[in-house]
Give the backbone structure.
Amino acid sequence: NGMLDALDACIMDHQFNCGSVAALERIKHPISVARRIMEKTPHVMLVGEGAQQFAVAQGFPLEPNKLSPDAEKAYREWLKTSEYKPVPNIENTGNKKVGPVGGPQNHDTIAMLTFDATGNLSGSCTTSGMGFKMRGRLGDSPIIGAGLFVDNEVGAAAATGQGEDVIRMAGAHTVVELMRQGLSPTAACRAAVERVAKIKGVSAKDIQVCFIAVNNQGQHGAFALQKGFSYAVCNAANQKQLLTCDYLLK
């Protein structure tokens, strides 16, 4: 309907404290609002107009309620067909026709997991969701247990990709529970991806789902449904690596 994308985010610490915001409009940093919900309220999730009111009360400025010229142009072009059919990992294809930052239909989720010097885990997950999505649509990113889950005794996990399919199998929570059963972070992520593929059947080839995980020993891993997913790792010495993870559909 030509309105600005609503934003979603969640955050969780090592003591099961968590905060989440969904369908947040005109606020630039939803993850910061999610943290305020965690720290300043007795609630876990605020949504829509109430979330915006809370954010403003906490001092977050309202952004202009209008599309940028590039976004307006992309929206008008999309209206010609009104078709939503994202291409998995389009940001890695080198296709320059899809618009800025990977194309208007393909803004990935940003998920982060931390293992600190005291051995405590935490995580966050934030997204703008699908481009041209139906107003009110939510994916997995703001849902504790789907887009993100942290259990300090076991590990932490987060997801990116087609949110509906992550929600269906409680993705991040599933990965953590698989680590509880003794699987490594990579093996747990793979088992969760295999479950997504089993649920989707032949249509699995049309989507992308990826999981990242870290266990309570600081070991990390990831696994994807399709080729093309990479994740970054940074240690206490600020040494950084960009790693390409293995994938299921070959």
Residues 4 and 68 are 10 Å apart (CA to CA). The radius of gyration is 18 Å.
